[in-house]
Amino acid sequence: MKISKRTFDAVIVGAGGAGLRAALQLSEAGLKTAVLTKVFPTRSHTVAAQGGVAASLGNSEEDHWHWHMYDTVKGSDWLGDQDAIEFMCRKANEVVIELEHYGMPFDRTDAGKIYQRPFGGHMSNFGEKPVRRSCAAADRTGHAMLHALYQRNVRANTQFFVEWLALDLIRDAEGDVLGVTALEMETGEIVAFQSKATIFATGGAGRIYHSSTNAFINTGDGLGMAARAGIPLEDMEFWQFHPTGVAGAGVLITEGVRGEGGILRNSSGERFMERYAPNAKDLASRDVVSRAMVTEINEGRGCGPNKDFVLLDITHLDPKVIMQRLPGIREISIQFAGTDPIKEPIPVVPTCHYQMGGIPTNYSGQVVAPRGASMSVAVPGFYAAGECACASVHGANRLGTNSLLDLLVFGKSAGETAVEDVRKSTKAHKELPQEAIDRTLARLARLDTQKEGADAHESRLAMQRTMQNHCGVFRFADKLKEGVSKILEVQQDVQRVAIKDKSKVFNTARIEALELDNLIEVAVATMISAEARKESRGAHVRDDAQDTPEHPNGRDDTNWLKHSLWFKEGNRLDYKSVKLTPLTVDTIELKKRAY
Amino acid sequence: MDEERGARLRRLRWHCRRALLELDLMFQRFWDRVGDGVDAADEAALERLVGMEDHDLWDLVSGRQETDDRQLKDMLERLRQA
């Protein structure tokens, strides 16, 4: 069947920070640029980012990109590629100042410069002491950033396709990416977007977990599309968790609650952190607290009918302190936990927050995949940036404020590379292969015709529970092994999901079923990659890879200093080496990650 | 329900997909509770709320900001109760 076609120089999927930054580069270069987005651009999940964006501007005290680079490599537990990390840290000042010129309302010093505050893990002089490196716009940094970038894009004539769901990558027999198929929600029409450059900036897939801080739109659409088109997904076992999300909801309870004296308790009311961290207790690092919580739950000391959460207790604090110093926490607890924290403790669980892995790219934003003897050959016409991509700058764990920096630097860099590539190409657009379009149509036809089958909501829940229970913040060999079989069973169900509503206009049941197709790819990639990696590193912490003198923190550099690559076809894993050589400076040598 | 209204409500539901998880959860609970049982006045109030910026909307829902607008006040209360 023929479908209508629209032709552009560049098509960008996703209108969060990375997508808008990339689009701006292309539109300002005069290229005909389309941005496809499921929701209005300023409702992208970038809005939720509060912390700030890291840049060694040195406005408050001495700072240097090389120190920032050191912190990022260390934070990544040496799994980050040092060429990409140097590139990002060197570019940070430039992209932040550009953003300032676009009208971003950064907080200011008395002298009128961008005000900078300290943030966990950011240090001066190669890990010596904390440094003020985060640039913020009150607690609405992500929101302000999106608005500045969106307005600039409107000025540059970027063409927005709002409420369009991209469905599949169009790739020809030679492996070139020629655009995407997409669904217009308003009409149900399927259109082929033909382009010389296709940039994915679709964000993370945190909704694969039952407890997640991610908004509902974070369904890993770009990762699903890439995987179905034969592109591997890199380092998918690495997910950052936050220790205290409201159980059953995922909404974050800030670390400030423990800072103000909040205590974690198990089912018998015991302050269990005293056993795990006798000195720091409830103020131990995120990893330590999360692991202790999971151990309590796994050993049967969790709370509630299913014994699947612990309690965060602030009932001993003066209500005035709660109201004054922890604004919003009471409302969140009442709304999402159904408890008033002045009277009762808040049920909490470690909660998925950020995806470190993704579509493999180099620091120019080109998607790279194995070809012939090389593990990283650029896929012609395909680029990715932001949380959906893996450059890899976050490696095994991300530093706070580096996510907004990532999307600015690599959004711009992917845009710049795409501009160069489009300008170099003298040929007309290649013809779109009908087989690629037919694959999308077959997926939709199955949904339209299938009468009996699995329920999308139940399958999604089964996926989320499997991921949470078998591949959470603290991992166990037997649970991971069992998790692989279970998630593959869920995948079978997803392939036979049926929807009752067959209407065309704004059929949200169809949209959610299509999103589930993407989520399940990410879930399978995560479980299989995590089961295979037999060490602890960064956010991937296994019970059977503990801290020993030979393997500090359970990290095994001899066998596992390498990136995982998961391929959808046959659920195959392969590995590629970490780039330990930076662009201009010396390698930051391996050592134990300790703070 | 006629197809036109059905499509309008489905569109409104999609506009309840937000940037912030707090709002997603709030709207999800609301729709689970009311189903398609919203009248034209509810629809109008919801349309106004979903047109707002996420942080501003959350400030209203969580009570950090207040409004004197009767139509919005009633709907905000129902969202909180859901």
TrEMBL record, chain A:
Obligatory cofactor(s): FAD
Residue positions binding substrate:
242, 254, 353, 398
Q: Tell me the enzyme class.
A: oxidoreductase
Instruction: Specify whether Glycoprotein is a keyword of the entry.
Output: no
Specify one Pfam family.
Answer: FAD_binding_2
**Record flagged with keyword Cell inner membrane:** yes
| Pathway membership | Carbohydrate metabolism; tricarboxylic acid cycle; fumarate from succinate (bacterial route): step 1/1
Q: Where does the chain bind FAD? A: 14-19, 37-52, 221, 387, 403-404
| A GO cellular-component term linked to this record | plasma membrane
Which catalysed reactions does the entry list for this protein? a quinone + succinate = fumarate + a quinol
Modified sites of kind Tele-8alpha-FAD histidine: 45
Instruction: Determine the domain of life of the protein's source.
Output: Bacteria
Residues of the active site are: 286 (proton acceptor)
The UniProt keyword set, sorted, is: Cell inner membrane, Cell membrane, Electron transport, FAD, Flavoprotein, Membrane, Oxidoreductase, Transport, Tricarboxylic acid cycle
Which intervals hold domain Fumarate reductase/succinate dehydrogenase flavoprotein-like C-terminal? 460-595
Q: Which residues form the FAD-dependent oxidoreductase 2 FAD-binding domain?
A: 9-404
Sections of the chain in a coiled coil: none
Principal localization reads: membrane
Q: What is its EC number?
A: 1.3.5.1
The membrane-topology field of this record reads: Peripheral membrane protein
UniProt cross-references to NCBIfam families, sorted A to Z: sdhA_forward, sdhA_frdA_Gneg
> What family is it from?
Belongs to the FAD-dependent oxidoreductase 2 family. FRD/SDH subfamily.
Protein name from the UniProt record: Succinate dehydrogenase flavoprotein subunit
TrEMBL record, chain B:
What GO CC terms are in its UniProt record? cytoplasm
Q: Which Gene3D superfamilies match?
A: Flavinator of succinate dehydrogenase (1.10.150.250)
Please state what the protein is called.
FAD assembly factor SdhE
Name the protein family: Belongs to the SdhE FAD assembly factor family.
Task: Write down the superkingdom of origin.
Answer: Bacteria
Q: Name one GO biological process term.
A: succinate metabolic process
Q: Where in the cell is it found?
A: Cytoplasm
Q: Which keywords does this chain's UniProt record carry? A: Chaperone, Cytoplasm
Please give the organism: Candidatus Desulfobacillus denitrificans
Q: What is the lineage of its organism?
A: Bacteria, Pseudomonadati, Pseudomonadota, Betaproteobacteria, Candidatus Desulfobacillus
